[in-house]
């Protein structure tokens, strides 16, 4: 029996994956031909979702930026990127059905968020959207971590399981990416996918796929 529901954030609660992807090109627009091409090349080479620091660092190296300038630029760009994305997410609000589903499920299950979004930014956004109160705890990418999102999510799952004192079979992850699928597989919990314009998932996937977060209850 499911006792714990863990939500991813981007693409599940808020419609942000494409917004975040497009934001990279605000820093390196098409008019800046070399920069635009560098962004495309870096994203094409990514093996998994990475932090904004890692991505900006890779782009700047691709542009052959002098070594001594890279880290100061990474910090500056990453901060500007976060502020831009946060503002746009808050302006858009939750995806259709998400708020209703969260309110309903919070009275029956222990709800958590496990996201690759930096934890400080994640908490700020949730508080601005007035939905932080529905979750027992919120876990994002640790502020000090500069690595792959999968590792961060696995660490967050360990915290949730320890706090709830449940087995992985009593937990379900609601996500929208291949990283989410892999994280659920590795921890051993159930998975329900949310379709969006970035993943275009359909019923042929080896896990349930819903078009609206309100529909996840039928699979829990």
TrEMBL record:
GO BP annotations listed: DNA repair
PANTHER family: PHOSPHOGLYCOLATE PHOSPHATASE
UniProt-listed Pfam families: Hydrolase
Protein name stated in the entry: HAD family hydrolase
Classification via InterPro entries: HAD-like_hydrolase_sf, HAD-like_sf, HAD_sf, PGP-like_dom2
Domain of life, per lineage: Bacteria
Source organism phylogeny: Bacteria, Candidatus Niyogiibacteriota
GO cellular component: cytosol
Organism, scientific name: Candidatus Niyogibacteria bacterium CG10_big_fil_rev_8_21_14_0_10_46_36
GO molecular function, one term: phosphoglycolate phosphatase activity
Signal peptide stretch: none
């Amino acid at each position: 029996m499911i006792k714990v529901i863990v939500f991813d954030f981007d693409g599940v609660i808020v419609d942000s994956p494409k917004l975040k992807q497009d934001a990279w090109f605000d820093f390196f627009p098409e008019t800046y031909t070399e920069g635009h091409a560098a962004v495309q090349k870096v994203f094409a080479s990514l093996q998994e979702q990475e932090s904004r620091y890692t991505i900006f660092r890779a782009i700047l190296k691709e542009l052959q930026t002098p070594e001594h300038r890279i880290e100061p630029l990474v910090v500056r760009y990453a901060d500007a990127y976060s502020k831009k994305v946060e503002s746009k997410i808050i302006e858009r609000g939750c995806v259709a059905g998400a708020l209703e589903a969260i309110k309903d499920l919070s009275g029956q299950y222990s709800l958590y968020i496990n996201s690759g979004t930096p934890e400080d930014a994640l908490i700020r956004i949730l508080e601005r959207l007035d939905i932080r109160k529905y979750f027992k705890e919120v876990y994002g990418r640790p502020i000090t971590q500069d690595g792959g999102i999968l590792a961060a999510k696995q660490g967050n799952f360990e915290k949730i399981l320890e706090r709830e004192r449940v087995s992985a079979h009593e937990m379900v992850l609601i996500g929208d990416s291949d990283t989410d699928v892999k994280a659920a597989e590795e921890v051993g919990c159930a998975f329900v996918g949310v379709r969006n314009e970035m993943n275009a998932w359909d019923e042929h996937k080896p896990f349930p796929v819903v078009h609206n977060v309100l529909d996840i209850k039928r699979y829990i």
